[in-house]
Write a structure and sequence with these properties.
single chain, mainly alpha, about 90% helix, about 0% strand
Length: about 325
């Protein structure tokens, strides 16, 4: 058996496989950068509409011009999001096709001794189910995480331009989210591994029993084989419920932390606006938008990392077969 590949090694190999479609990759990266810029500029324009167009100039023509521009930004953001999601899935499906072909080409040249010692259902699971899970590494992985991180960086820069004190408060959420994500990442990786292992075991069991059904009936083993299947099914259910448990716990924890920070920042912003008068109404509105824009990518990054774990587990199992002599 070959040495078990590390997570960084798996990610590196998947990245280089994806580089076969580097043109689409580069296009998606450009769209991510433009999308981050458009998203961050929207609250700035909102601040300008409130503080300058409404409270200072009071010019309807200028106001309507900026409102139309704001609507245009929203439409552009929607279109860019569509193309980013489409390209991510397009790249993922092309990569999966490439991995399927590599895996099958490898399988058909194995010696018969390999198939004698390896359950066929296990191979089917890896060639079909596990390969499909790898798609999440591309649809929720490289491109989307890059876009989310870029958006977080742009938002933080814009927030410091609005109010330094509130921005420092916002920064404290980053290490908390990192610790929580890391904790659930470890738990979910093990849970996904158990889930894929029991799925493979169940597929192997069903394939072998259906192939040998005539022998099972001849020796009247139906009830005994059903009990074995029931035991495997119970273990698979337990593994699936474990992943559901961690997902069910993860999202409320993230929502709770997000709500606490939004409430804290709104309290400080409102207090400053009422007392020190160093924050304009437009700045408060812009900062509220930035807080939501900061929390959303952080939550999405955490969610994506959890989904990526499933893809990495599948990739580990597929690459394990591809690395066999």
């Amino acid at each position: 058996m070959n040495k078990k590949p590390t997570t960084s090694n798996i990610i590196q190999r998947l990245f280089f496989i994806g580089m076969k479609f580097r043109t689409w990759f580069i296009l998606a990266l450009i769209i991510s950068i433009i999308l981050a810029i458009v998203s961050v500029y929207r609250p700035i324009l909102t601040q300008q509409i409130v503080d300058i167009d409404i409270l200072k100039l009071k010019d309807n023509n200028v106001l309507m011009k900026d409102i139309y521009f704001l609507i245009g930004l929203v439409v552009a953001e929607t279109i860019l999001n569509f193309f980013l999601v489409f390209l991510s899935n397009y790249i993922a499906q092309n990569v999966i096709r490439d991995i399927r072909e590599r895996l099958y080409h490898k399988l058909i040249y194995f010696k018969t001794a390999f198939f004698d010692k390896t359950a066929i259902g296990n191979l089917v699971t890896r060639a079909v189910g596990d390969v499909e899970t790898i798609a999440t590494v591309y649809t929720d992985g490289f491109l989307m995480v890059f876009g989310d991180i870029l958006k977080v960086v742009f938002v933080l820069v814009a927030m410091f331009q609005v109010n330094t004190e509130l921005s420092y408060i916002s920064l404290t959420i980053l290490p908390i989210m990192l610790v929580i994500t890391r904790f659930f990442q470890k738990k979910l990786r093990k849970a996904f591994g158990d889930e894929r292992a029991w799925t493979s075991t169940q597929n192997s069991f069903v394939q072998e029993r259906l192939s040998g059904m005539s022998l099972i009936q001849v020796f009247n083993r139906q009830e005994a084989e059903f009990k074995k299947f029931d035991s495997i099914n119970i273990n698979l259910k337990a593994a699936l419920l474990k992943t559901v448990f961690y997902f069910s716990l993860f999202f409320p924890v993230v929502e709770l932390i997000s709500s606490v920070f939004i409430g804290l920042i709104l309290f400080v912003a409102g207090y400053n606006a009422l007392t020190a008068r160093d924050i304009s109404p437009g700045q408060v509105i812009a900062f509220i938008s930035y807080i939501n824009m900061l929390i959303r990518p952080l939550r999405q990054i955490a969610d994506r990392f959890n989904n990526i774990q499933r893809g990495l587990v599948g990739a580990e199992r597929v690459l394990g077969i591809m690395d066999e002599e």
